[in-house]
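RECORD TYPE: protein structure
NAME: Cd(2+)-exporting ATPase
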Amino acid sequence: MIGFIHKHKKSITFLAGFLLVLALVLNFTGHHDLRQFTLITATVIAGIPIAVKAFQALMMKAFSIEMLVTIAVIGALFIGEYVESAVVTFLFLFGDYLEARTLEKTRSSLKSLVDMAPQEATIIRDGVSVTVPVEEVVEGDRVIIRTGGKVPVDGKIVTGQASLNEAAITGESVPASKKTGDSVFSSTIMDTGYLEIIAEKVGDDTTFAKIIELVEEAQESKSKTEKFLNKFANIYTPAVVVLSVLVYVLTRDLHLSITFLVIACPGALIIGAPVSSVAGIGNGAKNGVLVKGGEVMDRFSKVDTLVFDKTGTLTKGKPEVTNIEVFNSHEEQDLLRLVAQAETVSEHHLGQTIVKEAKSRDMALDQEPEAVNVIKGNGLTATVEGRILTIGNRKLMNAENIAIPAEVEAYAVNREKAGNTAIFAAVDGEVAGIFSIADQIREDAAPALAQMRKNGIKKIVMLTGDNQHTAELVATELGLDEFHAELLPEDKVAFVKQLKQQGHVVAMAGDGVNDAPAIATADIGLAMGEGGTDISMETADVVLMADKLMQFSHAYSLSKATIRNMKQNTFFAVGIVAVLLAGVLMGSVHLASGMFIHEASVLIVILNAMRLMGFNRKQMQQREKELEPVQV
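PREDICTED:
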């Protein structure tokens, strides 16, 4: 029975509406008795779904809005106010229908994401190309994607090149060029080209599947405002019943007390906050920003201090070896080969940059390094081809008692002043060379930071493990308030804790790997999640899928707009209820008209929240077009 009512609720609503119109016609034609029967029938038909929902809430020991309406309708039938009872039940169901429709629209970003998921994949098995459902693709399969096709899984390109629309992942509509060795992600669309990839993540493990899961969880999670309103409803509903009884005791007017009961329903108040939260999170997902729930939105809107890692956050995170200087009669090629061999086991981006340089020179890195010891934040030591290598910064050289000659130190300082990171490489306890590695500041860094200052950020700090000179160049270029260089991961955590103790509400942005501890410590952790790395999605509260700082600015202003929208809806809802109740007590608002205004207020708060779906999109696109490259 309950399942039938829920399934046909829309039909029940429109049947009740038809009966109301029929009753109006019968009134004009003088069929009074038939009109009364039609109104009672409409009341019963529309009232059953409301009463069922009230009963279900009561079984859960909760006092719902439906309970107020059910009591009021029974009272209206008792005193013979059939027009009011029919109108109230129909308007309540119709308001519920409009609420469901508009809520569905606010969730359209998630629905559009789900619709992007590919259904089939073309793979090569036993030398034959076959098309299979995407669920049947397994890790290691060789997958073919042609022009116009969707990438069915996450993987690495082994053959071909193409232009891919990655809007489903990054929110960016500008196609990205892909070639052999690059990674591709499920649900991105190939504009032109041909690719063969090896499947690395399939099914629920793909980046796209995780995005959908995160957005679903976020839209279900509640902000502090929503949690408060839910508790408030459980107190408010019985309080209204008591007050309506008090009105009857004081006035002896049953009609007035029933009207008071119906008009006091806090529908707009209860729906206002959740719909704002859903619309805000949906806007973020549509623009490549994953915000993990209403509570995150709430905290994010209060942030006044930003802390950034440098490499991969304020800079592009795609460093290149700009120079290799050798000392003590070492050969450049030999030193590069030895260092690259040792760095093959390193996950640090600077180490991988050296490996990439060696591979670009067609060096065979087939020797497994031995006795590897990674010193977090400083470098590593290893044995390669019988030689003991020490690779890292000055702190590591000092810790290993390796002397840095004056001319080597002078060279390193000059390279750092020019914007390079100097990596010292020692062989058998003697400095053999310096690798100069340079990165570029993100094009959108300066305008994004300026925009966030405009929106209320008071302090911007950079924490980096890089050298003092390079850090100073970046900080000066971007006009940061503070910077601290040559820090270990634990130093960053300590600094974030210190800021919080001073009363700042801190957002920490990093690459989601080396900065995970500091990201987890901050009030809001934000990860530059290129393609959505697992650790960035798990650790951070906010993930930028396109690695663009302008998305950070958008997320921050969106959080403020979402909380502002919640407050607008709350104040409006409370104001409407107060005005209506005052009107009831003064005799100027009646049951049917009051219920109509009440349901209209529900629709208004929903429409107000829906404005968030289009928030700031045009401005974001315009600012991205205006960006000019900035280099260090």
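COMMENT: The longest strand covers residues 189-201.
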